[in-house]
Specification:
Elements lengths: L1 E6 L5 H10 L1 E6 L4 E3 L4 E3 L2 H8 L4 E2 L7 H9 L4 E5 L7 H4 L7 E5 L11 H7 L4 E8 L9 E8 L6 H25 L31 H10 L6 E5 L2 E11 L14 E4 L4 E4 L4 E8 L6 E2 H7 L8 E2 L3
Parallel strand pairs: 1-2, 1-6, 2-5, 6-7
Antiparallel strand pairs: 3-4, 7-8, 8-9, 10-11, 10-16, 11-14, 12-13, 13-14, 14-15
Helix pairs in contact: 1-6, 5-7
Length: about 325
């Protein structure tokens, strides 16, 4: 089966590698190289770097729906289009181009839950206990296509979004190969999504990383985990922005601190400081001062003095 693969970031690389091992990939489509970093150097999408290492032809049209791009894709004679984290809208003429008459997409959630651009981060931030991967037929409505396969994946209570993304990328790669085999054998059965159960997530922005200490400890812990690797949850201490990279829920007698304001440092331990919240106590295990690298708490306090009673403040 001849596959035309669409993708952009690192999370799509395991899927491309697995598909390439099992099928003929006739081309990899990704966005053009873009300026990136402090010096705005022209940087290729991660999937392009991987594809070139595998010796696959790469196509980077500014607009994948442009008639010229469509002619190029048509000449490749793909039987199926496979999409994972591509990031651009595919119009009807492109979707209908493969021999089978449609394309399939790998989405890192249990659709119809968390349609949209940030399902992995959102699942953690919202406190979900499980997530998963879904292979679906692409429709003209975002993430609303009929489902071919799904696989559930538990979310560990201390797992961050970067770790979960890595895990889902490999599970999703295996599921995509299984899906293509079903399509190739004529055994694929697509099931419509239940629209009444659909939920949506938005693109995570920097402001979404603000910690509100009046929240309960579990909600703050979820936020910190969900904001790795970006935007990194942040707060203010002594007038400076402090980024929090790792926390843990502390099973502690909260009643004795009921009079302390949320955000107050309650205790300094070797590997963390204990901070009061709106409900419960949270341990801060890794943090980052301005213009410094993130450090485990025991390293951070060597150069940054903290005292019981100091206050992490909300950013207004």
């Amino acid at each position: 089966m001849r596959i035309l693969f669409f993708g952009t970031p690192e999370i799509a690389i395991p899927c491309l590698e697995k598909v390439c091992t099992n099928f003929k990939v006739v081309g990899v489509v990704c966005p053009p190289d873009r300026p990136s970093g402090r010096h705005l150097r022209l940087t290729p999408p991660p999937i392009k770097v991987s594809a070139e290492k595998m010796g696959l032809p790469v196509f980077q049209p500014e607009n994948v729906n442009d008639p010229i791009a469509l002619d190029i894709f048509r000449d490749l004679k793909p039987d199926l289009g496979v999409v994972f984290a591509f990031g651009s809208f595919l119009k009807k003429d492109l979707l209908n181009l493969p021999t089978v008459g449609y394309m399939i997409n790998l989405h890192p959630s249990l659709l119809p839950r968390w349609r949209g651009p940030s399902p992995i981060q959102t699942a953690i931030i919202e406190g979900d206990k499980e997530t998963g991967v879904t292979v679906m037929k692409i429709s003209m409505k975002m993430d609303a296509g009929d489902i071919l396969l799904q696989r559930k994946v538990p979310i560990d209570e201390n797992e961050n979004a970067l770790e979960l993304s890595e895990k889902l990328s490999h599970i999703g790669a295996d599921l995509m190969v299984e899906a293509i085999h079903l399509i190739n054998s004529g055994k694929a059965i697509f099931i419509p999504q239940d629209e009444s159960k659909a939920t949506y997530c938005h693109l995570i922005e920097k402001k979404d990383g603000i910690i509100h200490w009046a929240w309960d400890a579990q909600r703050i812990h979820n936020l910190v985990r969900g904001c790795i690797p970006w935007p990194i949850a942040f707060t203010k201490l002594n007038g400076e922005i402090i980024r929090i990279h790792k926390t843990e829920i502390v099973h502690y007698d909260h009643n004795i601190y009921n009079s302390e304001k949320p955000g107050t440092i309650l205790e300094i331990k070797k590997d963390k400081c204990l901070v009061n919240t709106g409900k419960g106590v949270i341990g801060i295990c890794m943090l980052q001062a301005p213009n410094r690298k993130p450090l485990p708490f025991n390293e951070y306090i060597k150069g940054n003095h903290l005292q019981v009673g100091e206050l992490f403040e909300d950013i207004v």
